[in-house]
Amino acid sequence: DVQLQASGGGLVQPGGSLRLSCVASGFNFSRYPISWVRQAPGKERELVATVSIRGNTNYEESVEGRFTISRDLAKNTVYLQMNSLKSEDTAVYYCMGSRGIQYWGKGTQVTVSS
User: Fold this and answer.
1) Interval 51-60 mean pLDDT
2) Measured between alpha carbons, how far is 96 from 29 in angstroms, rounded to an integer?
3) How confident is the model at residue 36 (pLDDT cuts 50, 70, 90)?
């Protein structure tokens, strides 16, 4: 079975940090670009960051300079380091592998609030 297990969410104050992890299994992880996608209440899903199979990264404009995506091939894991968090970063965060077909995991809730 294909699984993408996201974890690391929680409640954090504005300006704080969190690190999300996504552990993949059941497919050839090293051959898939992996993305983090978020969905805030009442809003559409938004692509936050992507890491390619070669390790190249891309970010949505509002998180550029604050978030860092990385992957550990030995652990089949992708991380999202989130710094200087803002209330508008509050959302459910999903990891997604995409190469023709898409694999989605269950999300992890991130809440930024004082």
Assistant:
1) 96
2) 11
3) very high
Q: What is the tens place of the pLDDT at every residue in 87-102?
A: 999 999 999 999 988 9
pLDDT at residue 24 in the model = 94
For residue 52, give every residue at least 6 positions away whose Cβ sits within 8 Å of its Cβ, in sequence order, or none: 33
Determine contact, residues 111/10, Cβ cutoff 8 Å: yes
Return contacts of 62-67, CB within 8 angstroms, 24+ apart: 62/88, 63/89
Instruction: Output phi, psi for 74, to 5 deg.
Output: -65, -30
Determine contact, residues 9/106, Cβ cutoff 8 Å.
Answer: no
Q: Which two tokens stand for residue 28?
A: 């050839």
Q: How confident is the model at residue 109 (pLDDT cuts 50, 70, 90)?
A: very high
- Which pair of tokens denotes residue 99? 């190469």
Q: Which two tokens stand for residue 59?
A: 């970010």
Nearest to 10 by CA among 23, 1, 21, 26: 21
Contact (Cβ atoms closer than 8 angstroms) between residue 44 and residue 96:
no
